[in-house]
Amino acid sequence: MTLTVAPIGSVEHLEFVQAQRSVSFLQTPAWGRVKTEWRSESLGWYDGRRLVGAGLVLHRPVPRLERHTLAYLPEGPSIDWTGDLSRWLDPLAAYLKAQGAFAIRLVPPLRTHVWTAAQVKAGIADPGVERLMDVPGGRVDPIGAQVAGWLRDVGWLPQSPEDGFGAGQPQFKYEVPLAGRSEDDVLGGMNQLWRRNIKKAAKAGVEVTVGSDLKAFHDLYVHTAERDHFVPRPLRYFETMFAAMSAEDPERIRLYLAHHQGDLVASTILVRVGAYAWYSYGASATEKREVRGSNACQWAMIRDALAAGCDVYDLRGITPTLDVDDPHVGLIQFKVGTGGQAVRYVGEWDLPLRPVMYRAFDLYMRRREYLRGKRR
To answer: To the nearest whole percent, how much of the chain has pLDDT over 90?
Structure first.
């Protein structure tokens, strides 16, 4: 039977999300209220009168393209990816083109490859292995691989760069499986350094609490940005994020604050939707790093995710490099200490709906990235 796509209200969208085991927080109605610079809408897929799928679309306006937008579905939509995808994506394309979109960008929430912590560590130790995709023994997820092949065959264009970090969502992530595991299981799966640092924080008297002092978090976050050379988001962004997501579900987002003798030494943000938890943002002090406040925050978030019945704790993006001379390898070395697994996702895919406008958009983005690189 043909599926139809139509706008749905935020209440209906949220009810659909709550009926699933998990949906990305980037596909909740609240996320549309966080991304104030984009126009958002909730769409539903109907089989007759029954709602069978949903997605949050962020419409990105582009200079000089008048009312036309890039229609972006981050880590979505929430549909059945195992069947005939044309039933789902063809009506989506027809609807969005009628609304003025010049292209669609999808980020299917599907894995294509998975590597255990042991396999990643072996790859780092092997001088002949420079990238995750070169690590032998990784598991291929047949559904993700099939979806990626189908998208390519019908004309969707892959957008994920080699380093895994595009303009949107990272293609490579690090995740800690939690389903069916106890705290002792998870702690036992960590490497010796992580276990020692968690114990060191406890012995030093680091106290981790769930709080609401976003100003304290943001001050530490700005300090972290200056030290680690990235551009921080403004305080207002986090205030909007907490207000929108907490209004949707009081358990959706939490701020963790690690103090040592009255000093804030680390702070993190956890997001949870159903059975999936994400480490979203983190900050740490340069002083008192020896008390391991960041490890204490991570352990507190993992324990809370376990208590909430989560299947996965997501440490978010990594680069796929395993070259010990690459400065980015430190990120995966830090995360691999949690045990868990490195994961490659299907990535971002574009479908041009108005090819001339899409080419103009592509040139605009390439020029913007070129100028950004020159400013660095």
So the answer is: 86
Label residue 165 by pLDDT band (50, 70, 90): low
**Whole-number Å distance between alpha carbons of 107 and 144:** 11
Residue 313 has pLDDT above 90, yes or no: yes
What is the C-alpha separation between 197 and 205, in angstroms, rounded?
A: 12
Closest CA to 271 of 257, 256, 252, 258: 252
- Cβ-contact 328, 319 below 8 angstroms: yes
State mean pLDDT over 157-178: 81
Sheet bearing 69-73, strands edge to edge: 4-7, 39-47, 50-61, 69-73, 101-106, 349-352, 157-158
Cis peptide, bond prior to residue 77, ω within 30 of zero: yes
Q: Full-prediction pTM beyond 0.90?
A: yes
3-class SS of residue 343? strand
Pairing of strands 207-211, 253-260: antiparallel
Query: Has residue 158 been placed in a domain?
Result: no
How many domains is the chain built from? Answer: 2
The one-letter amino acid code at 373 reads G
SS3 state of residue 35: coil
Question: Does residue 143 lie within any of the structural domains?
Answer: no
State mean pLDDT over 59-83.
89
pLDDT band at 47 (very low <50, low <70, confident <90, very high): very high
Query: Any residues with CB less than 8 A from the CB of 332 and at least 6 apart, and which?
Result: 120, 124, 174, 318, 319, 321, 322, 342
- CA 340 to chain CA mean position, Å: 16
Give 99-133 pLDDT, tens digit per residue.
999 999 999 999 999 999 999 999 999 999 999 99
What DSSP state is assigned to residue 237? H
Show the beta-strand stretches assigned E in the chain.
4-7, 39-47, 50-61, 69-73, 101-106, 111-116, 139-140, 157-158, 172-177, 207-211, 253-260, 263-273, 276-284, 312-317, 341-345, 349-352
* Domain that residue 67 falls in: 4-107+348-375
Token pair, residue 12, equals: 């209906």
**Residue 119 neighbours by CB under 8 Å, 6+ apart:** 135, 136, 137, 138
124 lies in a domain?
Answer: no
